[in-house]
Q: What sequence folds into this?
């Protein structure tokens, strides 16, 4: 799926396994026992934030890596302290291409 497709269909995909491919544009390691990355694939629009998807994983990646991520999509996930995700791919298996 494209990242824009995930955003467009997020309500129907909630709780289901989703696979996306994109470029790592942000990586934060070891936060809350997991690594956090943002991927983009050129789909979606920056103006409405449908161009970027947050992924949590055990994998360690680098900025610029092209990855395939497969995980369970959660919507409206609230981690507290103002961190709410309208769509997030959790516990993903990430493969670097």
A:
């Amino acid at each position: 799926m494209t990242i824009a497709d995930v955003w467009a269909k997020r309500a129907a995909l909630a709780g289901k396994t989703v696979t996306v491919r994109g470029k790592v544009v942000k990586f934060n390691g070891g936060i809350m026992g997991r690594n956090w990355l943002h991927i983009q694939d050129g789909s979606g629009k920056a103006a409405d934030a449908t161009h970027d998807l947050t992924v949590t994983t055990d994998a360690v990646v680098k900025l610029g890596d092209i990855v395939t991520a497969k995980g369970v999509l959660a919507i409206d996930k609230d981690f507290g302290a103002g961190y709410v995700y309208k769509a997030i791919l959790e516990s993903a298996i990430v493969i670097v291409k």
Observations:
- Helices lie at 3-8, 10-13.
- The chain has two helices and seven strands.
- The beta strands are 17-31, 34-40, 53-57, 66-74, 77-78, 84-85, 88-96.
- The chain has a mean pLDDT of 97.
